[in-house]
Design a protein that fits this description.
This protein is of the alpha+beta class. Helix content is 32%, strand content 20%. Strand 3 and strand 4 form a beta hairpin. The longest helix has 14 residues.
């Protein structure tokens, strides 16, 4: 039989001094293990990466659904989800049979809404960057 104070500590609604986990203790626990990385980039050798035509999927977390960040070239465009029977992307209400279809649906939606812009421009040359830097320093 438990004493009244033991019963109070077992009661979830009681605000006694029990071994409660606070957000701070969780942060400390995460800091204790510096080898645990959160949101690994697709280039990290420990990242679980799935390559599909035109995209890289990097596993984030979850069991059902499993969450994957979607990369196109070197830029993350969003997240897709692997359910037991289908894939989804969270921007439409469609169920996709393959991960590439969910990634393409996400990409097309973001491009259509203007959140992603397809560009054929080349990155600026070193000379153009130096000229821009010089112009910006004159304005300051």
């Amino acid at each position: 039989m438990q004493s009244p104070s033991e019963r109070n500590l077992d009661n979830r609604n009681h605000h006694g001094t029990s071994n409660m986990i606070s957000p701070f203790s969780l942060q400390e626990a995460q800091l204790d293990d510096p080898t645990e990385k959160i949101l690994l980039p697709p280039t990290d050798p420990n990242a679980e990466v799935m390559e599909i035509p035109g995209y890289k999927l990097v596993y984030v977390n979850g069991a059902c659904p499993r969450n994957y960040r979607v990369y196109k070239s070197d830029s993350m465009i969003g997240v897709i989800f692997q359910h037991i029977t289908h894939w989804s992307n969270g921007v439409d209400s469609l169920r996709y049979a393959e991960p590439v279809d969910a990634a393409v649906g996400l990409d097309e939606f973001l491009t259509m809404t203007g959140r992603l812009t397809a560009t054929t421009e080349q990155p600026p040359t070193e000379e153009e960057l130096l000229v821009q830097e010089g112009v910006n320093s004159v304005r300051v």
